[in-house]
TrEMBL record:
One GO MF term attached to the UniProt entry: phosphoribosylamine-glycine ligase activity
GO BP: 'de novo' IMP biosynthetic process; purine nucleobase biosynthetic process
E.C. number: 6.3.4.13
Keywords assigned: ATP-binding, Ligase, Manganese, Metal-binding, Nucleotide-binding, Purine biosynthesis
Cofactor(s) of this protein: Mg(2+); Mn(2+)
Family assignment from sequence similarity: Belongs to the GARS family.
Metabolic or biological pathway, per its Swiss-Prot or TrEMBL entry: Purine metabolism; IMP biosynthesis via de novo pathway; N(1)-(5-phospho-D-ribosyl)glycinamide from 5-phospho-alpha-D-ribose 1-diphosphate: step 2/2
Gene3D superfamilies tied to this protein: 3.40.50.20, ATP-grasp fold, A domain (3.30.1490.20), ATP-grasp fold, B domain (3.30.470.20), Phosphoribosylglycinamide synthetase, C-terminal domain (3.90.600.10)
Statement: the UniProt record of this protein carries the keyword ATP-binding: yes
Annotated ATP-grasp domain residues: 107-319
Origin: domain of life: Bacteria
Record protein name field: Phosphoribosylamine--glycine ligase
Amino acid sequence: MKILIVGNGGREHALAWKIAQSPRVDTVYVAPGNAGTAIDAINVPIEVTETAKLIKFAKEQAIDITVVGPEVPLVAGLVDAMQDEGLKVFGPSKAAAELEGSKVFCKNLLHMADIPTAGYRTFRDAEDASRYIKDRYSEPNDPVHVVVKADGLAAGKGVIVCSTRTEALEAIDRIAHQREFGEAGKELIIEEKLIGQEASVLAITDGETIMTLPAAQDHKPAYDGDAGPNTGGMGAYCPTPIVDEAMMEKIEADVLVPIVHAMKRARRPFKGVLYAGLMLTSAGPKVLEFNVRFGDPECQPLLMRLKTDLVDVIEATIEGRLGELEPLEWDERPSICVVMASEGYPGDYETGRVITGLDRAAELPDVKVFHAGTAMKDGQVVNAGGRVLGVTAIGNSISGAKLQAYKAVKEIRWQGAWCRKDISDKALEQ
C-alpha cells in the first residue's frame, strides 16, 4: 500500500512512523512534512491547503489511503474534495469538522444534546461582550472566573483564562477588536471557568462504532506549574491515572456516545478521530472542547504504546466496519512526550537555528524524537516553528518514562531551546 499523510507537525511525524511499521505498507509520503518525516517517510512539497495539488499527487501516485493530520484542511473540506474524486481518505467531512472549526457550533450542540459542559454566552461584537462583563463585575480588580474563547481555529491559543475584570476585558479586546487571532475572532464565547484536572480522551469512530483510546493528559500552559499563556500543548503522557475504568465508562456514556448520535441527528455523521478535551470537576467530567483529529502532542505518547496495526484501524473506519475489529492492543508501559520549543513561543520567535544532539538522543533506548517545527538548511536540521520537537519515551513507570524523556532532552541543543520540566508530575502526585 501507498499512504499519504497531510501535515507537517509532530502528530504527522508520529503517524508516519507508526504507519510505516505496518507490513501492509510499502511507501509513506508526507505533505509537506519536516526534517523528521524525511527520515521515516518521503516528503512531498505540497502545503496542507493546496487541495488540487494533493488530489493530483494522490491520483498520480495511486495512493491507497490519505490520512489528514491537522485541523485546518479538515475544516476547509479536504476530505470531501478527495472523496468526490474517488479517493479513500481518513478524517471527518467539512460539515463534521465544524465541531472543532466553530466553538459556538460545538457549545450549542453540546447544549442541545445535554452533554455536560460549562455555562456560556456567545457574542458577535466586542461592545456587547464587554458590557456583559461590566454588568456582572463592577470593579476593575473584581475576581472573575471566566474563560474567553475565539470561535474559530487559533492553533490552540485562542483561549484566555481570566482572573479579574480587567483581564476579561483585555481578552475580549484582543480577540474581537484587535483581531489577534484573525477571522477566528469574528464571534467569541465567554464561559464559566471549570475547576479540576484536564484530561484528553480520544476515540476513533466510523459513525456507528466508537473505539476509545487510553486517556492522556496534555499540558497547555507554557510554563511549569501550569503558569503562563496557553500554547498548542507543551507535553503529554499516557495513560493518566485520573481517568480510571469507572471514569472512562462515564465519559463514554455521557460524552462520546451522545456526541456521535448528536452529529448523526444534525446530518453531519462523524468518521475519524474524535478528541474530547475534558475537565474532571467535582460534579463529573465536563467538555472543554472537541477536536476532530489526533491531538498534538497526545498523538505521540499514544502511538508509542499502540501495538495494533494502525492501518487496519484506519481502513476499517473509512469502510464503516470498525465493529469487526478486535480490541486494540497496547503496550502496558506508560509513555511521555516533552515538547521542546523556540525561544519566545507562544509569542514571536526566530527560526533557522541549528539543532544538535538529535543523533545522541535517538540512541537512547525506548526514545523517539518526533519532529514538529523543523526543516533542513544546508544539510543541517534547524528550527522552523514554535513547537520544534516532541521528545517521547516509554518506561516501566511514569517516573521511568519521564526520566528517559528528559535524558533525551538534555542531549538536544539549539539557541533559545526550552521546555517545561514538569511534564507528567500530575500523575506522580495522584
